[in-house]
Amino acid sequence: MMQPDDIRADLVAMPGIVATAAWGETSFFYNPDNRLSRGTYFATIKDHDGANDRASALDRPGIWRVNFGVGRKAYADLFGAPPPRPPKGGVVAGPWDFTALDRLMPHPVYGWMGWVAVLCPSAVTWAACAPLLADAHARATFARRLRRSGGDP
What we know:
- The protein is an alpha+beta fold.
- It has 4 helices and 6 strands.
- The protein has helices at residues 4-12, 72-79, 123-139, 143-149; strands at 17-22, 25-30, 40-46, 65-69, 105-106, 115-119.
- It has a 6-stranded antiparallel sheet, with helices on one face.
- The chain is globular, with a radius of gyration of 15 Å.
- 32% of the residues are buried.
C-alpha cells in the first residue's frame, strides 16, 4: 500500500499543482505561480470522516482516501452516467462499497460532479490512475477566474 506522502509527492510533482491544508484535509489546487488564492480544485487526501462525508469510514486506523476529478467522458467510461447529487449528509446512489480498499470508485459525495476516489491505493492501482490524473491536469485551468478577478488570462 502506498502512503499519503507518496501520493502527495506525485501530485505536487505535476506542473502548477500546489498542496494546501484546507477543510481538514490536504487539498491540491492547480495554481501556477500562486496567481489565485486557491486555484482550481484538483485533488484531495482525506484521512478522517467529516460531518457530511462518513461513507468511507475513514476513522478506521490507517485508512485514508485520495480523491480527484475526472472528465465527464472518463467518468462515464468507468462508471456510466454520473448519479444525481445526494442530499446533505448522503452518498451517491450506486452499487459501490465506499469502504473497500484499493478500488477506484466514484467519490461517495462528489461522484455526481465527476470526482473519483481510492482508499489506500496500492502502487498498481495508483499507476492505473495516472492517465486519469494526466487528463485532469490537462483540463485544469483558471483563465476564466483570472479574467473575473482582473488578472491576465
